[in-house]
Amino acid sequence: MVEDNLKRILEELPPEVKLVAVSKFHPSEEILEVYRAGQRRFGENRPQEFSAKVRELPDDIEWHFIGHLQTNKLKYVLPYASLVESIDSLHLLDAVEKWGREHDKVIDVLLELHLGAEETKGGFTQDEIEAILSRSLSGVEGSGVEGSGTEGSGAEGFSHVRFRGLMGMATNTDDMAVVEADFARIESFKRSLEDRFDLPDFTELSIGMSHDWPLAVKHGATIVRIGTAIFGPRVY
Q1: Is 236 contained in some domain?
Q2: Which of 31, 38, 102, 220 maximizes the CB count within 10 A of its CB?
């Protein structure tokens, strides 16, 4: 079944859009089924589960971390992730920079824009993302991000973080007009950032999941995160 699901999605997905098969909560045996069907890019959102699966599964998998990441769990994620899609606070971003400096590694990340209507969702405001990108280019002392609790940190900017683009999650609703408005907003914001900042690696827009990915593609998604439509409902 998972092979058929994957094939159907790939037939509809434009070739330039990357598919992240969201394998969270699914055992390694099921991931291997999708791997054997040709998929090489998977996403996880729980650090310990992530690191365990990395060790169990083939080493040519490109792993994305897509969930909230606590700073005390970096060791489970940063050695293995090709892309951390869910940088949602300056505190976390500074911790990732510090880890990269200590381990002589540059970490590819996406900045999560607070996109949906829910207050419980994490992520930055547009102003905060603009301030972070300004800091990354200027390298001057101070983040310029109000309320972060870490103003004045990172005087050298972000020499061990590579900003690859934005990630966002639309409002949790069955109203596709609301979802499309969310996607249109992040697409417009990303274009404005590209106009303002000289960041040649800032190319990715990760939006869209199993129920709304066609709308995400319509609004410039370069990455879609699809789990249920491939694996079926979670098993635990």
Answers
A1: no
A2: 31
